[in-house]
Amino acid sequence: QVQLVESGGGLVQPGGSLRLSCAASGSILSFNAMGWYRQAPGKERELVARIDMFGNTYYADSVKGRFTISRDSAKNTVYLQMNSLKPEDTAVYHCNKEPPMPWGKGTLVTVSS
């Protein structure tokens, strides 16, 4: 059973940057795609960014131009570089593959002054 472990969250001021990592216990190239999702308090989980097996990317409108998803297949890791962070980016961030597996603990990102 593949495991995904998210890391890199923390407290950052508005306008700051963070890089999240999602380390997989197996080859990420065997997945159809991988995505970063977030769930803010009281809200539904939403897809933030996605990268498929061909390297094609998708971004939610709310993060387009600020977030970048990438992968290092040698390290079986997917990253989410988050720049120009806003308070509304505050959420627990999760990664998952397609088809999805049970959600992990995620990593908390708090954007606040």
Protein architecture, described:
The chain is built from no helices and 10 strands. By secondary structure, the protein is mainly beta. The strands form 2 sheets. It has a 6-stranded mixed beta sheet with strand order 2-10-9-4-5-6, with no helix packed on it. The chain has a 4-stranded antiparallel beta sheet with strand order 1-3-8-7, with no helix packed on it. A hairpin with a 6-residue loop joins strand 4 and strand 5 (46-52). The protein starts with a strand and ends with a strand.
Strand order of the largest sheet: 2-10-9-4-5-6
Mean pLDDT: 95
Termini Cα gap? 40 Å
Rg, Å, rounded: 13 Å
Structural class: mainly beta
Low-confidence stretches: none
Quick recap of the structure?
The chain is mainly β and 113 residues long. The chain has strands at 4-7, 10-12, 18-24, 33-39, 46-52, 57-59, 67-72, 77-82, 91-98, 107-111. The model has no long low-confidence stretch (mean pLDDT 95).
Task: List the keywords.
about 110 residues; mainly beta; 6-stranded mixed β-sheet; 4-stranded antiparallel β-sheet; globular
Q: Would you spell out the secondary-structure blueprint of this structure?
A:
Blueprint: E1 4-7, E2 10-12, E3 18-24, E4 33-39, E5 46-52, E6 57-59, E7 67-72, E8 77-82, E9 91-98, E10 107-111
Parallel strand pairs: 2-10
Antiparallel strand pairs: 1-3, 3-8, 4-5, 4-9, 5-6, 7-8, 9-10
